[in-house]
C-alpha cells in the first residue's frame, strides 16, 4: 500500500463457480479493478464443520487475482458464524433491548462477547492469517464487517456478566458507582455490581448514566474484539489492518481504529446529499492521521435490500465521488459489490456487473472512475492533503450521550452534518477530528454537540487557545459530566465557564419561546436546548431579543492567552439562523487568519493538496449543477497540461479539474 | 344450487334464544333472505366439552329455516376452538413472527397445523357432516372462516417440524436446498433440514428464498387442512363446498379452491373504491370456471370492530353492488350479518337488523337488493357471463414474493387493482385469472407484477401467443426464479428474453432518475424497479428520454407465431403515466381485435351476459355520479319490457339497466 | 390545613447533602415556599436493606423544614421498591400486555398486587406513619406517586389469580359471567373462572367485556392498595391523606379518592392549552366536595425527560395558573420540583432552582406567584367557590369503555376537554363532576361520552329532571350495558328512551355520509357514531338534512316532571358544529335559568367565589392575549382597594383582577 491508488470491489467467489470466477477476473481487468476485498461472510466456506478448516479455496482465489494484477484485502468472516455455531445455542446469540433472541440466517446474529464465539473467531482468524498472510497478493486486512451496523447493545447473559466486570473496573466499588450515577434517585441503589441491570424493559426511562455507560461498555467490547483479531493477524502478516466502519454504526470509531492500521468506511449516502458523504472523508482521514483512508464500500449506483432502495446515481456522480475521495485523502475507492448477488437479501443491490455477468447501469461510471483514477494517480501520490486550519470535533461518545438524551428526537449525525455543511459551504478547507486528536496546526476549532467534554479534551483545547487558537464551544456542549449527570457547580461546569468568562444564567429549551438571537447584524430565531450567559470576563457577541430573557448573551467571546474562547449557547435556526451561523464561522475564520479557503460556489468543492514545491487544487462539482471558483493565480491544468489563467474557473456538472500552482 | 339467485346472511342462532330465532326467521322472510350461513364459530355450542358432541341444535335450526323457505350453508367451526382445547396448551396456539404465543379469546388463535387440532377438527367436522349433511335445507358447505385473515405464517414448534418435512419433500436433499437458495451467502448453509430456521427474529433480513418458501409452505398447509375437511364432508354430503376467502388473506386462493367446489369471497371494500370490489368478482369467477361464485360476506352498510369502522354506504350503493355481482357471475349476495352482535368485538358492525331486533340504516337497501334480485333472476339464470377477450393474471404466490421483496413498501393488492382499474375504465369486458387458468378464448393477456413466471405458465402463454394472442409482460414480471433468486442467464431469464426478442440491458429503480418514457404519443415519468431493453428480434415501442440511459426501449413488441409478445419494462407513473398505460391497453386491445368493449363512462360498468340466442348487458352505475354508454343497436329493457333505441343510454346514480339484444 | 394558601415544591433532600439542604431551605424561604412534599421515591433511603428501616433522616428533614416555617406533605415511597425487593424476583414485577416483564431501574416496575409487595409496602408505611406522623410539621400525606402513570393493567400471574377472584365476586358463577359477556360468541365460553384469560396477545381483538372488566379490575385493585395504605397511616396520624393523580393515568379517580381525605392532581398541560388545565380544577374540586384540592405538581416553566420536553411557559403564565387554581378551589399550588435533579432520567425537567443552586428561568415566575398568593390569601380564605349551576359528568370508567372501543382512535380526554371548553368559552361557571356526585344545586347537566349509564346515575338524573333540571344526554352516551355489551331492548336501553320519549331508529358512524344537522338556526356536519331518533313523546329540536336518513331527529327534547331531558344523538363537527354546540349550550343555559355566567372573552376566565355577604370575581387572562368582561355592577378591586365601575373591565395579558361585589 501507499504506492498506488486503488480501485476496488467486494468480491464473493465462494458464491460462484470457477468458470464465473474466470469471467469475473477478466471483466475486473477490463473495468480497471485492481483490488478485491474477499472473505468477510465466508466462514462456512472456510470451516464448513466445526474444526474442519480449509483455506485452500481462498489461497487459490488470491493467487489467481494476483496473477491478474489484482491485489486483495482479506477479511475475517466473523459477522456470520455458520450453523454449527448457532444451531441449538440461543445462549450464543445477540439479544435485543426487548429481550428477543436472534436466530440464524442474517448477520451479526451472534453475541460478539460470547466466550465461545471469541474462541472460534480466534481459531478461524489464526488459520486465515497463517494461510493467506504470506501470500504476495494480500496487501491488507479487514476485521469482520460493519460492526454493530444491524445491532447495538447486546442484552444477553454473557454481556450481563461482562457489564458487571466492566463496571467493577471502571468504578472500583459499587458505592462509587452509586455516587457517580446518583442512584438514590428512584431508589435505584445497588448493593453489588451484580445487581446493576442491563437497560432492558422498564415502565419508563432508565437512569441516564446506566444507559450511556452501557453504550460505552458495548463500544469498548466490540473494539476489544477487534483488537484481539488484529493481534492474531499480526502474528502472521505485516499487511495493514482496518475495519469498514461508519458513523452510522454503534461503535466508537476513535477507539476502534486505535489499534488498527488504517481507517476505512462504507458509505451509501444518496447523491443529493453530498455533504454527508464528504464529512466522512474529512473525518476518516483523521482517525489514522498521516495514513490515507479507504472507502471500502460504496455503490456504483444505488444501494438496496429486499425492503428498500436508494435512488440511482445520476451519470457523472460516481466519478465526482471518487475524485473527491482521492483528493481528500483516500487511497482506495471500492464498490460493494462486484457481481450482483443471485440470492440472499441483498439481491437488488447495485453492483459493477449483474448476476448474469453483464455491465450494470453503473458500469459506465466505473469506467469513468478508472479513467479519472489513472489521470490523477501521479499527482495524488506526489502530494498530501493540505493541513487544514479549521477543525470540528466529532465524537461517537457524544452520539451515545445524545442517544440517551435526545431531547426531541435529536439525531446526532444530522446535527453534526448540518453544522459541517456550513463550514464546507464557506469554501473552507477543514478537518473533522476525533476527540483525542492533537490540535497542532489548527487556527479555529469548533466543538458543537458534545454534551460531555473530557479533561484531556479540555486541556488540549485550553492549550490551543493559549497558543492563539479560537475555540468555539457549542451548541449543546459541556452541559453533562462524564457520568452523564448534571454539573453541580455551574451549568456547563465551573472549568468551562471560568475559562470562557461567563456565568450561565439559564438553560432551557428555546423552541416556542419567541426568542430571536441578534449577532453579526443578523436576527434569527433560536432553537434547541440553550444556555444563556452573564458575561463575567467575556464580551457579549450575540444577544437575545424577545422570549423569556431578552437582552441576554447567547454568544460570548473572551480573549485568553494568545487566543479566544467563544461560547455559542444556542442554535440559530431557520433561514436566518443559517445566515447567522455562517456569519459566525466566516467572522472567526477571518479573525483566526484562516487562509485556506476559496470562494467556491455551493455544491462544488476545492480540495487542496500539498506537493514538495507546489500546491494542487482538486475542484469537483458534487451537485450536478456546475459551479465556479476564483483561481488566485495562474496554474496548470494537470489533466490537460494547459495553462490556466487566474480568475473564475467555470465547472460543469460533476466536472473535476486539477490545477497545479507553484508554491 | 344453480337454480336461483341467493340473497343471504350470516346467522348466529346459538347466541340468542328460541324466541329471537322465531323473530329472526319471520324478519328474514320479510327481507327476502333465502339462505343463511351458520355455524362457523359455534364449536363450543356443538362440543361444549371435549368429546361431548351434540348437533341437535343446528339440526333444529336448519330444519326450521328450511320450513320457512330459507336454505343453509353449513360451516365447520374450526376458527374458534373452545377453551377445553386451548386452556393450558400454549403448544397448540399460533405463534407470530416475534415468537409471541396467542391466548384464548379471539379467533385463529390455534395453530391449524397442530396435530391435535387437526384431529379434533376432523372429529367435529365428521359429526357435523353426519348430522346435518342429509338435511334437505343444507345446500352448501363452508370450511372454517376467512383462513389466515388475522394471522399469517405460524412459527410454532409443530410448524417447524412440518416445515422441515415440506422442505425435504420439495428439495429431496439439503444440498439441493442449499444450492437453490444460495446459502453460501452469509454462511447460511444448512447441514440438515432440521437446521433450516423459521424466519423469526434476526438482526437484518432473512434470505429471500427462506422467506418466500415459508410463505408457500404456509399456503400449502392451510390448503391441506381445507382439503382434509372437505374430504370428510364429502363422505356424508353431496352439497358443494367452499371457503369464504379474500385476496387480502395470507392464502394461495388458486391452490385453496383446487379441491373445493365453488369459490366465494368476503368483501368490505368501501363504497368509494368500487374497482377494488369489482376485481374480486372478475377474479373469483375464474377460480372455479363455469361455476358461479358467491359473495359470502359483505356489509349492508359499514364494517366495524371495536377499534375501527368504514364509512356507511350511500343509499343505492348496496343494490348496485348486488346487481353488479349477479351480473358478473355471482349466484349469491350475502351479508355479514343478519342480527347485530350484542357482545364480542364486532358489536358495532353493520347488519340487517339491530341487536334489539329493528331494521338498521342498511335495511332499506336490503329490500332494494331483494327487489332487484327478483327482477333480474330469470335473465341471470338464462344467461352466463360473456367470454372475456382480455385477461389479467392474478397470483397470490406473486403476493408472497412481493411480501418478501417489497422494494419500497409496494403493496401487491394496490398495484394489481390499479392496473386492473385501467382495463376496467376502458370499458373492456375482462377476466382476472389465476396463474393456472387455461388461456383459450382470450385475445389479450396481461401479466403484470409477477416476479416469477412458472414453466407451466410460460408454456401456456407461449402457446397463446403462437395461436394469435397478444401477451403483455410486466411491469415487474419475470425477474425472479422459482426459488426467489435472481436469474443468472439473463435479467428476466433467457427463455423470456428469447421469446420476446430482447436483451435486458439494465434493471434498476427508476424513481428519481428523471426518466421519461415515450410511447403512443405520450411522455410520462417512469417509476418502479424497471428493465430496459435492447431489442434483438423485437421492435421498440416505448423509448426512454432523459435519465441514465436515454433512448433505450422500455416497451418492445415482437411477432411470434400468429401473435405478439410485448414487454413492458417499466411503470409509467403520474397522470401522464395513467394516460400512457391506457393508450397501451387501448392500442393492444384494438390490435388484438377485442370487440367486447363499450364506451361506458368511468364509474359505470357494462357486464355482458350471453343467452342462447341473445346478449344481455347489465349496465350499473357504481360511483353514484351516474354515467352513460352508447348502445350499438336497439334492444329491450328487460326490467320494463320497453324498447331501447340505439345511442346513448343515460344512467342515474347507482342506477342499473338490463338491456337485451338479439344475437 | 384549611388556614392558609400553600405554595409548595417537591423536595428530595435524600439526593443531596446537609449543606445543600441548608441552602435549599434558605432559598425556599426567599421564594415563599411554605410546604414541601417529600419521600415518595425514597424507599431505599428509608430501608436500604430488607427490614433495616430508619426514618431518622426524614424526621430530621421535616423538623428542619418546620423550624423554618415550611410544612410537609409526607409520602409513602412505594412507586420505587429498592433492589432488595426486585433483584432476582421477576415474579414480583409488572408485566405488560405483550408479556414483557419489567426490570429494576425506573418506577412502577413492581406489580402493586404482588402479595409480598403489599406486605413490604405495609411495613414501610407503618414505620413512616409511626415515625413522622406525630411531627408537627406534617400537615398531610400522599400515598405513593402518580399511580398507573407509566403502566396500565398488569398481566402477571398474581394478577391472573386476583382477576379470577374478582370475577368470582362480581359474577358469582361462571355461568353468569358467560351470560353477561355473551361468551358463546367465537366459542369463548369458560367452564371455570380460572379459564378466563387476561387480555394478552391474540390474533384479533378480545371480547369487549373482557377488556373493559380487566380495566375495572385494575382500577379497583390500585384503589384497594391506596385504601390499605391510608388505613395504616390513619392509625398514627390525623393529617389528611391524598394521592397526586390525574385523568391521564389508568385509575378510576372517583373510586380512588373515595377513601382519601382530599383530592390533588399533577398537571403538565402546555401553556397554550389552558382549558385542559382548567378542567382539572373544575373536576378535582368535586372529588371531595367541600374540601379544597391541591395542585401537587406543576412545572415552573417546562416539563422534560431525557427523551422529550414541553415548551417553556411565557412570562406571566405561571402566576395566571396559580391565581386561577386558588380561585377555582385549590388550597395549594406546588411545583415539581424544587431543585433540578443532577442524575436519573428527569435531569432536564424544569424546577425552581438549578442543580447548581441558582434560580432557573422559572424562578421569577415563582416569586410572582408568591406575591399573588399573599395578595389573595385572605379573600380566598374568606370565600368559597360559588355553587355552579351547570355540571358536566366526567367518568374514568367511561374512559375504560372508550379504550376498549375507540371507534376511530377516539381519545376520551380530548373529547371531554373539547366539550368542556365550549361551556367554559360561554362564560358559564361550571362543575365537572364524577358519576357518583349528588346533583343538588345544579340546573343543567351534561352527560356526554358516557357509553354506560349506571342505574344509580340514571336514578339521580331522573330525580334531577323531575325536580326541574335540564339533562342533556350525549353524544355517545347510553349505548352500552354495564357489561360493555349492546342493549337488546333498545339502542340506548329502554329506560333512557322511554324517559327521553324517543325511539332510536338507527345508530351508525356519521362521518362521510354527508349528513348535516339543523338546529338553533345553524347547519353543521354531523360526526362520530350517532343515534337518530323517532320522537315518541319528545319534540325534535335538531333534524338531519342530507345523508342516509334526511329529516330525522338528532336532538330531541321532552318535558318530564318539572324539567326536561334532551337527547343529543350526534356530534356536530367543524366550525359550524362548534357554533351549533355552543348555541345548544347557550339555549339550555338560558332555559334552565343559569345566571352565573358572564360575557368574558375567550381565553379569560371568571371564577366567582362566595363570601358571607359578598361575592368575589377572580378574573384571569389565561391565553396571554388579554381580554375583557362586563362587570354588572360596581365593586371593589380587592388588590388595590379602588372602586371599580360597572361596565367593561379590560384585562392585560396574563393579568388577574379580583373584584368584590356586595351581595
From TrEMBL, chains A, B, C:
GO molecular function, one term: beta-galactosidase activity
Binding site for substrate: 107, 145
SUPFAM superfamilies given in the database record: (Trans)glycosidases, Class I glutamine amidotransferase-like
Superkingdom classification of source: Bacteria
Any one GO biological process: galactose metabolic process
UniProt domain Glycoside hydrolase family 42 N-terminal: residue ranges: 11-375
Sequence ranges assigned to domain Beta-galactosidase trimerisation in this UniProt record: 388-594
EC number: 3.2.1.23
Sorted UniProt keywords: Glycosidase, Hydrolase, Metal-binding, Zinc
A Gene Ontology term for the protein's cellular component: beta-galactosidase complex
Enzyme's top EC category: hydrolase
Keyword Zinc among UniProt keywords: yes
Residues given in the record as Zn(2+) binding sites: 111, 154, 156, 159
The reaction(s) this protein catalyses: Hydrolysis of terminal non-reducing beta-D-galactose residues in beta-D-galactosides
Protein name, UniProt field: Beta-galactosidase
Species whose genome carries this gene: Paenibacillus rigui
Amino acid at each position: 500500500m501507499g504506492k498506488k491508488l486503488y480501485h476496488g470491489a467486494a468480491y464473493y467467489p465462494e458464491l460462484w463457480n470457477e468458470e464465473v470466477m474466470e469471467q469475473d477476473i477478466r471483466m475486473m481487468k477490463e473495468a480497471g479493478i485492481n483490488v478485491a476485498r474477499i472473505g468477510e461472510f465466508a466462514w462456512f466456506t472456510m470451516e464448513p464443520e466445526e474444526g474442519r478448516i480449509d483455506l485452500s479455496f481462498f489461497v487459490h482465489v488470491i493467487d489467481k487475482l494476483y496473477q491478474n494484477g489484482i491485489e486483495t484485502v482479506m477479511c475475517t468472516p466473523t459477522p456470520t458464524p455458520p450453523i454449527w455455531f448457532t444451531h441449538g445455542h440461543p445462549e450464543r446469540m445477540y439479544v435485543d433491548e426487548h429481550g428477543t433472541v436472534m436466530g440464524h440466517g442474517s448477520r451479526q446474529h451472534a453475541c460478539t462477547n460470547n466466550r465461545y464465539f471469541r474462541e472460534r473467531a480466534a481459531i478461524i482468524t489464526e488459520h486465515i492469517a497463517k494461510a493467506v498472510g504470506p501470500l504476495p497478493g494480500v496487501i491488507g486486512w479487514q476485521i469482520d464487517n460493519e460492526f454493530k451496523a444491524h445491532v447495538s447493545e447486546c442484552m444477553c447473559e454473557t454481556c450481563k456478566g461482562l457489564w458487571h466486570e466492566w463496571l467493577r473496573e471502571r468504578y472500583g466499588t459499587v458505592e462509587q458507582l452509586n455516587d457517580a450515577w446518583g442512584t438514590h434517585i428512584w431508589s435505584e441503589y445497588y448493593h453489588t455490581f451484580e445487581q446493576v441491570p442491563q437497560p432492558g424493559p422498564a415502565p419508563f426511562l432508565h437512569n441516564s448514566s446506566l444507559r450511556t455507560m452501557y453504550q460505552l461498555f458495548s463500544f469498548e467490547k466490540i473494539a476489544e474484539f477487534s483488537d484481539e483479531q488484529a493481534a492474531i493477524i499480526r502474528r502472521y502478516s505485516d499487511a495493514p489492518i482496518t475495519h469498514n466502519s461508519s458513523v452510522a454504526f454503534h461503535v466508537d470509531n476513535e477507539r476502534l481504529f486505535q489499534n488498527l492500521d488504517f481507517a476505512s468506511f462504507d458509505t451509501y449516502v444518496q447523491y443529493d446529499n453530498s455533504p454527508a458523504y464528504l464529512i466522512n472523508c474529512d473525518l476518516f482521514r483523521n482517525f489514522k492521521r498521516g495514513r490515507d483512508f479507504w472507502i471500502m464500500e460504496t455503490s456504483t449506483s444505488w444501494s438496496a435490500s429486499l425492503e428498500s432502495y436508494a435512488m440511482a446515481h445520476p451519470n457523472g456522480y460516481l466519478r465526482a465521488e471518487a475524485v473527491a475521495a482521492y483528493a481528500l485523502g483516500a487511497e482506495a475507492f471500492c464498490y460493494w459489490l462486484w457481481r450482483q448477488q443471485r440470492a440472499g437479501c441483498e439481491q437488488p443491490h447495485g453492483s459493477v456487473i449483474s448476476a448474469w455477468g453483464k455491465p450494470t447501469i453503473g458500469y459506465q461510471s466505473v469506467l469513468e472512475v478508472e479513467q479519472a483514477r489513472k489521470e490523477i494517480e501521479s499527482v495524488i501520490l506526489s502530494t498530501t492533503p493540505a493541513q487544514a486550519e479549521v477543525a470540528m470535533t466529532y465524537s461517537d461518545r457524544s452520539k451515545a450521550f445524545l442517544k440517551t438524551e435526545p431531547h426531541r428526537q435529536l439525531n446526532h449525525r444530522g446535527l453534526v452534518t448540518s453544522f459541517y455543511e456550513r463550514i464546507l459551504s464557506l469554501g473552507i478547507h477543514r478537518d473533522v477530528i476525533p476527540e483525542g486528536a492533537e490540535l497542532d496546526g489548527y487556527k479555529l476549532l469548533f466543538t458543537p454537540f458534545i454534551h460531555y467534554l473530557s479533561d484531556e479534551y479540555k486541556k488540549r483545547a485550553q492549550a490551543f487557545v493559549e497558543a492563539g487558537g479560537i475555540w468555539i464551544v457549542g451548541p449543546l456542549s459541556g452541559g453533562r459530566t462524564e457520568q452523564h449527570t448534571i454539573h453541580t457547580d455551574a451549568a456547563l461546569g465551573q472549568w468551562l465557564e471560568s475559562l470562557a468568562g461567563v456565568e450561565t444564567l439559564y438553560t432551557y429549551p428555546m423552541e416556542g419561546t419567541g426568542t430571536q438571537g441578534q449577532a453579526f447584524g443578523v436576527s434569527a430565531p433560536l432553537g434547541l436546548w440553550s444556555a444563556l450567559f452573564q458575561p463575567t470576563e467575556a464580551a457579549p457577541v450575540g444577544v437575545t431579543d424577545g422570549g423569556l430573557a431578552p437582552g441576554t448573551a447567547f454568544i460570548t467571546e473572551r480573549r485568553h492567552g494568545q487566543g479566544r474562547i467563544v461560547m455559542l449557547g444556542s442554535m440559530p435556526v431557520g433561514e436566518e439562523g443559517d445566515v447567522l451561523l455562517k456569519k459566525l464561522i466566516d467572522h472567526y475564520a477571518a479573525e483566526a487568519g484562516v487562509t485556506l479557503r476559496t470562494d467556491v460556489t455551493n455544491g462544488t468543492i476545492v480540495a487542496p493538496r500539498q506537493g514538495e514545491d507546489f500546491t494542487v487544487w482538486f475542484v469537483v462539482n458534487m451537485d450536478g449543477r456546475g459551479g465556479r471558483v476564483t483561481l488566485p493565480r495562474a496554474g496548470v491544468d494537470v489533466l490537460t497540461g494547459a495553462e490556466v489563467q487566474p480568475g473564475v474557473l467555470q465547472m460543469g456538472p460533476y466536472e473535476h479539474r486539477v490545477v497545479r500552482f507553484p508554491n
